[in-house]
Design a protein that fits this description.
disordered N terminus; alpha+beta; 142 residues; 32% helix; 9 strands; 4 helices; elongated; four-stranded mixed beta sheet
C-alpha cells in the first residue's frame, strides 16, 4: 500500500504487508501536536509457549466492521483515526495491526488510541490461529 493510497483510507483489511507510515499519513495534520500509532506485532511467544507464526482469518465483512470501529471512535472523540489489519499467514515480527490517531494534545490521543484498539479487538470479526513449537496450532480468543 502506498502512502498516496492510504491518504484516503481510514480502514483496511488486507493480505499485503502493512505500512505504518501510510496509516499515520492518513490522519496526520499540521494542526495536531500528537500523532500516536499502535503497532500489533507477531511475537515469538504466548504465555509459556513458543510461537512460530499466526494465521489471521477474516469474515468477508471484516473491512466494514473495521471502518465502523474507526468511524465510531472518530465520532466519539472528534479525532482523525485510521487502522489496517492484516490477514493471512504472518511470521514473528510481522505487523498484524496498525492503528493511528492524531489530536491537538497527547492526552486525547492516548485515550483515543486505546479506545480504538480495544474496539477493534472487540468488534471486528478477525480470528487468530497460532502456530506453536512442535507443529501444533490453536485458535486464540474463540
Amino acid at each position: 500500500m502506498t502512502r498516496e493510497a492510504a491518504a484516503t483510507i481510514t480502514a483496511l483489511v488486507t493480505s499485503a504487508p502493512l505500512d505504518a507510515a501510510a496509516i499515520e499519513a492518513a490522519v496526520a495534520s499540521r494542526a495536531d501536536g500528537a500523532l500516536l500509532t499502535f503497532r500489533g506485532i507477531v511475537r515469538d511467544h504466548d504465555q509459556d509457549q513458543a510461537v512460530t507464526g499466526l494465521d489471521y482469518l477474516a469474515h468477508p465483512d471484516a473491512g466494514a466492521f473495521l471502518r465502523a470501529s474507526c468511524d465510531r471512535i472518530a465520532a466519539e472523540t472528534g479525532l482523525r483515526v485510521a487502522a489496517a489489519h492484516r490477514v493471512g499467514s504472518l511470521e514473528v515480527g510481522d505487523l498484524a495491526l496498525v492503528a493511528a490517531v492524531a489530536a491537538p494534545h497527547r492526552a486525547a490521543a492516548f485515550a483515543a488510541i486505546e479506545r480504538l484498539v480495544d474496539d477493534i479487538k472487540r468488534t471486528v470479526p478477525i480470528w487468530k490461529r497460532q502456530h506453536v513449537a512442535g507443529g501444533t496450532t490453536e485458535w486464540v480468543g474463540l
